Amino acid sequence: MERIIQLTADGSHTLLIPNMEVSYHSKHGAIQESMHVFIQAGLYDDRIKNLPQINILEIGFGTGLNTVLTAIEAIKIQKQITFTSIEAFPLSKEEWSQLNYGAILNQQPLFDAIHEAKWDEKVRIHPNFQLCKINQKVNEIINNLIHDELVEGTYNLIYFDAFAPAAQPELWSAEIFSYLYSLLTHNGILVTYCSKGIVRRTMESVGFTIEKIPGPPGKREMVRAFKM
Q1: Cα angle at 95 between 62 and 82, to 5 degrees?
Q2: Cβ atoms within 10 Å of 179's Cβ, excluding its own
Q3: DSSP SS3 for 26
Q4: What is the pLDDT of residues 122-177, one digit of tens each?
Q5: First vs last C-alpha separation in the chain
Q6: What residues contact residue 159 under an 8 Å CB cut-off, 6+ apart?
Q7: Which domains occur in the chain, in start order?
Q8: Distance between CA atoms of 168 and 51, rounded to whole angstroms?
Q9: Strand partners, 100
Q10: What is the pLDDT of residues 176-220, one digit of tens each?
Q11: 9-19 pLDDT, tens per residue?
Q12: Which of 18, 41, 37 is nearest to 26 (CA)?
């Protein structure tokens, strides 16, 4: 898979996949998009940030940006965060080592540790942050019905960061969202940058309560969905 590094408006990198015509992050700013969608709208929602311990599931590890931002926040807020991330097509070391997130955030050792952590193992990145990266497709996990880390009612927060529905329609299906709904705790939250009507209706069809909120720069709206 060809992936090309591009600079976004806030000075941070994204990756472009030419044959799919998709990028991993917004051209308006990769770091500011991730901070807005996943940290501010997800981790800092009152129902999440006030928990004594936080379990997060990420769909789409990608560049590792959401993961490193969350690890940084775990230190800031002094909360134990257990972070599970699913990725079917991990970057090579040659690819991720060229990304500038570690330098911009002044967290290069942390960024490196997250990428160097072994796949399919629990790794303690720092005292407040435990990571498990799963190298598998989400639909394969569903078909196999079980994974040691993916247990019903486990996660307080889900970062849904798959490529856009036009590029990966299979990941925006009722089957996927029903599965993710089952993994959430009561009052658990799913956040995603996508607010297309068909996506909202699919989420609602499996039980989610939908809240449209302001999106990051360059995007009018995003979605925060709840398990009531």
Answers
A1: 35
A2: 18
A3: coil
A4: 999 999 999 999 999 988 887 765 566 678 889 999 999 999 999 999 999 999 99
A5: 40
A6: 38, 42, 56, 57, 58, 59, 60, 66, 191, 192
A7: 28-226 (3.40.50.150)
A8: 33
A9: none
A10: 999 999 999 999 999 999 999 999 999 999 999 999 999 999 999
A11: 999 999 999 98
A12: 37
Rounded-to-integer distance, Cα 66 and Cα 68, Å: 6
Q: What amino acid is encoded at 42 in this protein? A: G
Per-residue pLDDT for 73 more than 80? yes
What tokens were used for 62? 């990608």
CA–CA distance, 222 with 214 (Å, rounded to integer) = 6
CB 25 within 8 A of CB 162: no
Q: Which of 17, 13, 62 is nearest to 160 (CA)?
A: 62
**DSSP secondary structure letter of residue 1:** -
pLDDT tens, residue by residue, 78-119:
999 999 999 999 999 999 999 999 999 999 999 999 999 999
Q: Provide the pairing of β-strand 155-160 with 53-59.
A: parallel
Tokens of 85: 């991330």
Instruction: Identify residue 188 by its one-letter amino acid code.
Output: G
Residues 125/118, Cβ–Cβ less than 8 Å? no
Structure tokens at 11: 């000075």
